[in-house]
Amino acid sequence: MQYRKFCFNTAIFRKNATSLWPVWLSYTLVCLWILPIRTWLQMGSYVGVGQGAEPLAEKLRNAIDSLTLAISPFPVFFFAAASGIAVFSYLFQPRSANMVHALPVRREELFFTNYISGLLFLLAPQFLAFCITVFVWFGNGATRMEYLLWWLGLATGEALLSYSMAVFAAMLSGQAAIAALCFLWLNYLYKGMVSVADAATGMLVYGVGRDSGGNWGEWLSPIPFLKENVQLVFQEGNRELLVPEFRGLECVPWYAAAALLFVAGALFLYRRRHLETASDIVSFPWLRPMFRWCAGIGAAGFCTYAFWESLSPEKYGNIFSLILVCAGMTGVAGFFLCEMLLRKKFLVFARGRVVEAGSFLAILVLFLVCLETDVMGLEGKMPTAGEVAGIYVDGGYQSYLEEPSEIEECLNAHQSVVQQKEEYEGYFGNYAELETPPYMVWKLTYQLKNGKSLRRSWCLPLDKFHVENKEGAVFKLLELEHDPEKYMEYFFSSGYEGVEITEGGNYIHAGRDGEYSFREFSRDEAEQLFLALKEDILSGAYRIYPYGHRKRELENYADTLTFCYKAPKGSRLFQSGEEEEYSGKYPEYVTVILGRGCKGTIETLRKLGYLEQGETPMSEREYSDILEHKNQQQ
Amino acid sequence: MIKVDGLRKNFGEFCALDGVDMHVPKGAVYGLVGPNGAGKTTLLRHIMGIYRQDSGKVLVQGSPVFEHPEVKQDMIFISDDLFYFQQANTLEMKKFYRGIYPSFDEGLFERLREAFQNIDVKCRIRKLSKGMQKQVSFWLALCCSPKILILDEPVDGLDPVMRRQVWNLIFTQKRENGTTILVSSHNLRELEDVCDHVGIMHRGRVQIERSLKELQGSVCKIQTAFQQGAPMLPEHIQVLHMANTGRVYTLIIRGDSKQARAEMEKLHPLFVDILPLSLEEIFIYEMGGADYAVQEILL
Questions:
Q1: Touching check for A5 and chain B: CB below 8 Å?
Q2: Which of A518, B131, B139, B220 has the fewest CB neighbours in a 10 Å radius?
Q3: What percent of chain B has pLDDT over 70?
Q4: Strand pairing of A439-448 and B55-60?
Q5: What does the alpha-carbon distance between residue B228 and residue A70 come to, in Å, rounded to a whole number?
Q6: Nearest in space to B190 (alpha carbons), one of B213, B215, B156, B165
């Protein structure tokens, strides 16, 4: 009795249930829609054929498939925020806060009663949806209830976490809208911090991109983490699973445990809370500096990154001074804007605050200078050859290096680029007044043996001097890329030797009149052309030049050949620009730009009658000259 | 009944209560007066256990009140700034109060229907006029049978008839239950009729706190006239204020009225009259010389 009185007040619970009915009713409707109604509709429209194990399995797959919308974390998190903020909404108005706290009820009793009320607004609809869905499944012959139980466990865990977070957020602020923002902030804090850090390193650390890739702390941002990791898996690679799997549920107990921490934190804050902070932006004085500094960092990060992106940085080389000024100005502006919101007035430039803003600026500048001068040694950080399992290279084309000698060579080229940083940055700086200088982007993704990856990307000069300087990194990496076998892998997958031409293809030919002609060829002709092209490429005569390379428009023809092929299953594909394995199901298409090195291919085209005897395709330069001339005439 | 010792409260850099000392005797009707911003409402919220003090003590019946529901269940606060739950009507609020206050008297609620017959109990309270909302708050508060009733600007917004009726109901409650009443107002004339103790607040402190009798015995107003102008008054007569129209002098003197009359008669005046002194005048003359901006309190 004592315990019940201490923790729970029936009158307040009844008041919550009656006055906040829109919250629980709308969530009930959502739960009913996303689970039993949707399942009923989906299973009702399923037409099974025959009897036995296979149709039953198909029926089960169909039933489980109807859970895909229900496992999305968004509805739970949205209603948890609404519920948490609604039950504690009396804290956001001085009138209601005073009235409720004048009642003979301890804060603990108020807290637990409101907490339990709001939590029931979420759990009761979920349980109701679960019970009705059990009947729907049974009614339709699906009996594997463990999937529904897993869903219930997931939904309960998500509700616990998100609702406790929302209550915690409600305790931090004196305004409902700020509490909602704070809830979002808690959910995306880690992602946001990583993005700001990535943006800063991407702008200032030579070769380090803006995407640091996956890292250990992803779980600290629950909404995106649950969205990406909790899944119903029906297919493993190219193999369809006999029974679908519910994956990513391991995090749920941990999140439920974290929910307890949030509840404890929220209760602690509630007991310490001063009611006069109702309608204030933050309800604890110690949050004010944190709020100002976070706003300053956010403003500096976002605005400076937007400014940097708008400048096309590859045209300007090193623009550290501009970044420093922009980050400093926007950071301080964000800092004081936040102070204005906190104080609810514009004149906030008191001595103490100006000194604090000065400290903020000094730390911000120090941080940026540390990044620019690479105090942490990020620019020079590279794995040893022994640590690398393979390297995805994206330069003139995409390739994958896994032979020790190739890896060693790539590491050497990487090192040369880092050593020539100042020279390359100076190159872009010198071109600042002109149009975009000739350059190429060279990206490396090291796949390490420990399962991690390391990414680097640089803008490298492609002028005559750098391309021909045999000691320079650009020359080295162009030589590294000049590998006939890699060209074949790039066009026809890593299993190019076992490629089967499945259909005919087409030949696009640029005529002397500037018009393109489109010719389709048969499968037999495609095979002949493929063999000829393969021979040309493997002979070393063919070469892929990166965009911007001065030889590209001289050596490449304006004509292209398109093939349709099937590679051995599991072969590595490069054409999509992402890591991809061939599924073996559908044919792939590839378009090859012909070049001066394709002598055998040209001869085959002549033999097949697609080119006149003695006719040679035009180079890209010749073709663009014709087009230019034609335009001038018009 | 209520004892406040050295109560301090700051809102950021603003000092709202600066060491308040106050004592409300059991069964008293204590009027708390002061200008806007003096700290009256803040003090009442501390007494109700709404705000947590920075320092000092607030004791009700000898116990601290903050986070002590067993103390708070005998107290009711009618705020100047009323709050009712969204969509709630009087019956629903009654149900809520009944669940919160163990001493809630449902029979009294029914008996008081006659006094508040203009209130539609099924109408949403937020739709009622401000005066009617205030009536609902009195109705519910009286039904909780409180031992201590704390009222912040209680009759603002009520028409004169309802004002009288509400005070009658409060005094009936006081007679029957011995309820202690603490009422804040910036209107001394209102309080003069109902209070037996008065405290005046200014700049976050209770400057004066006395019973009405003590106050009335401490200052007197004398009208007198002399044949040839005012004579030199003896030094032990402490004159707070003196004004004259021709040979007729009006003096405000600190001390007992009989003693003052005897002293004046020794000076052979043409006549001496003791005039009634309002609470308003007492405060003006008691505090007028102390630069307490008393005009703000009273005007």
A1: no
A2: A518
A3: 95
A4: unpaired
A5: 102
A6: B156
